[in-house]
Design goal:
The complex is a heterodimer of chains A (271) and B (279).
Chain A lengths: L2 H42 L9 H11 L4 H24 L7 H39 L2 H7 L4 H40 L3 H11 L2 H27 L5 H31 L1
Chain B lengths: L10 E12 L2 E12 L3 E5 L6 H8 L7 E6 L2 E2 L5 H8 L2 E4 L11 H12 L4 H14 L15 H12 L6 E5 L7 H18 L2 E5 L3 H7 L2 E6 L2 E6 L1 H5 L4 H7 L4 H4 L2 H9 L12
Parallel strand pairs in B: 3-8, 3-9, 6-7, 7-8
Antiparallel strand pairs in B: 1-2, 1-4, 4-5, 9-10
Helix pairs in contact in B: 3-4, 3-5, 4-5
Classes of the chains: A mainly alpha (271), B alpha/beta (279).
Chain lengths: 271, 279
Amino acid sequence: MASEPNSNSLVNFTEKVGRGTIGAIETFGHWGVLIGESLYWLFRGPTLKQPVRANAVVFQMMEIGVRAIPIVALLSATIGIMLAIQGIHTLRTFGAESRVVVGISLSVVREFSALITGILVAGRSGSALAARLSTMQINQEIDALKVMGIDPVRYLVVPALLAMMVMLPALTFLSDLVALYAAGLFVSVDLGISQAAYWNQTIEILSLGDLWHGLGKAAIFALLITLIGIVNGASVTGGAEGVGKVTTRAVVQAISAIVVTDMLFAFVVTR
Amino acid sequence: MSPELSEDTPLAIEVTDLVTHYGERQILNGIDFDVREGEIMVIMGGSGSGKSTLMRHLLSLEQATSGTKKLLSQDVNKLDIKGRTELSKKIGVAFQSGALFSSMTVGENIMLPLAEHTKLDKQTQQIMARMKLEVVDLAGFEDLMPSELSGGMIKRAAMARAIIMDPRILFCDEPSAGLDPVVASALDDLILKLRDAMQMSIVVVTHELDSAFKIADRITVLDRGDILACGTVEEIRSSSNERIQNILNRRTEEELLDGDEYLARLTGADYEPEESAPL
């Protein structure tokens, strides 16, 4: 008799793990279908006289990229200065504060710019994408598109995906420049190094591979943010409460995916 | 029935043995259904009768378990993407909520099918949108956002978008739901006007009896996934079928149970009907 509760909780646990696994496989399957359909419409659409609309892509690029420039610049500058302060403080212990440029440039370009930009865009545009799609789903706007013969993937998903894939790496590159510049200003003032010397050192330290490391990660983050936003948006049930739930879930999942992917990427690339 | 309609009028919609499921639950139990060209067919039934499900299947928004459906003599299940897109140009849908795109103006909403499916320049699209807005009595509202319109205006704008491509079949989901009687009656008149002016087949899903009797050439009554009856307004009105009369007299199933039986159903208790006393 005493073993019954234990066996019940074991069954419950196994059931939960099983359901979670099936859910995860379903989600990955959904992502795969979305990527496949997006590629189909991108390349096959023009031959079916249903091309992806360039103005929709430009509109999304403005929303995702251009309008995010001020906040990305502000936070990148803050991260750059923070890295400079922390780096100088730590290296001063060993009397090696002049080597701070190595730490700053590699951390910014390989790690922090892509990460902070990805998290910002996930919060800003990933949530907007999930909210927009879920609201459209509830208001039958997605059904309206389908019955008008307008494929929702071509009309809604592909422009957002393309814009995200272009603008997130572009914002990351901007973030690299702003963070390095802000860090350089602090280093110049604090250590008395000239701006020219700082930039010379930075260029000497950084390789093209470091730059691609950050930009490549940004492209992967862009894919993750879009897919998570769309899959969550499309899965909405209920009314306004449902929209709130899927939006929150999309942001949490996207940020978690970005951080975990960042760690995996760093592990694989540095092996 | 419209004087032009007869048994020989070609079919615009032909559904055969349509079976649908939602999860494990069967919703439609093998429906046979047809609509003639130029006919207004009203689908009626109580909540959960399957009328909205039937409409979603006619629009290919859901996948049926089995059965065939032909729209304008084309088997929808056998069409490829291109065929479906071509067919969609001949079909217009006015959804219950209007389903206007909230990020676009009324004019942009109405022009969307033209922008996607034709090579007309913007100016021509605008002229055509204005003409359709004129038809639904919304001229001059093209620059407003959907959020600035009343419920009745949203439904009329949705109707304008549905007819922008001059479709051969128009579907209207609960066109008069939630509207005051005057506006609802005006929408009924609009549906009749569209049929007469554009000779289109119109399928209207509604539970508004007055509206159904006013506009229908034929009425299909659905109940629990089955077609109870299909016929002209007079045939439906004079039907001796008790379930149809219950629907027409708006009597719910609960109202037809006696008090003890209703209580037993709510509580899940066993119920044994009292034997009637011998006379």
